[in-house]
Amino acid sequence: SKRVPTSSKMAVGKNKRLSKGKKGKGKKIVDPFTKKEWYDIKAPGNFSVRNCGKTPVTRTTGTKIASEMLKGRVFEVCLADLNKDEDQHYRKIKLQCEEVQGHSCLTQFYGLTFTTDKLRSMVKKWQSLIEAHVDVKTSDGYVMRLFCIGFTKKRPNQLKKTCYANAAQQKSIRKKMREIMSRESTSCELKELVNKFIPEVIGKEIEKACQGIYPMQNVHIRKVKMLKKPKFDLTKLLEAHGDSGPAAAAADTGDKVEVAADADPAARPDRGAVL
């Protein structure tokens, strides 16, 4: 068989990039943060600290408007920072930006979660863990899913090592959890409901109601998920932030004016009628 001679030379015209320089050589690397501006995150009136952080956004260029890019952003803030109370460090609040005013993002409550370390620390041996969840609709149209967690505890003077609830007891405790979560949530607006989440009113209520079935401990609303929101209403949002509405009107009553004694018409001597 004949050997076909192979050429060490390359085919002409195939390697076109041989003579040219490196690709994309002259491109300058620009720091993306030079194009950004910072906006303040304003928390609703339910929390004591209203300025809870800052967020960067690319400046308005052409059709890309900065305020539109900010709307819908979700911020996760620790409840300890929002209320200056370190006892609430294990709960994280989600706030969603709904409106931009000047350099401030007005946010609304969007959800609640527990830190992983808190959840892990509550789960122990020799007790039952009971969980329940329910979908609720507030009176102002917000649909949320509430998740509840609770643990059984030993009765006073109990010698037995374990405190397990049987299936029937667990079922009735879950039923009670759902009932109380629905009752407390459907009867009020979102603002009032958030005020119930902060001091853990619902958890304490469940604990009290389940006392007759099986003693409970560490009963918490461990998670709140926003499922549906009503049509955006600016006046409602401003009311939640305390920038308008009856609450703000009542707050700004003005200062009392001191009236001098000689300016008081009753104190002035009667000079007679002027014709």
Can you tell me about this structure?
This protein has 275 residues and is an alpha+beta fold. It has helices spanning 66-70, 79-83, 116-122, 167-186, 190-197, 201-209, 234-240, 246-251; strands spanning 36-42, 51-58, 74-78, 91-101, 104-114, 129-137, 143-152, 216-228. Strands 1, 2, 3, 4, 5, 6, 7 and 8 form an 8-stranded mixed beta sheet that branches. Helix 4 crosses helix 6. The chain is extended.
Keywords:
alpha+beta, eight-stranded mixed sheet, 8 strands, extended
The major beta sheet can be summarized as:
8 strands, mixed
Low-confidence stretches: 244-251
Q: Can you count the helices?
A: 8
What fraction, in percent, of the residue positions are helical? 10-25%
Order of helix and strand elements from N to C terminus: EEHEHEEHEEHHHEHH
Overall, the morphology is extended
- Please tally the β strands and state the result: 8
In terms of DSSP E residues, the strand content is 25-35%
Going by helix content, strand content and strand pairing, the class is alpha+beta
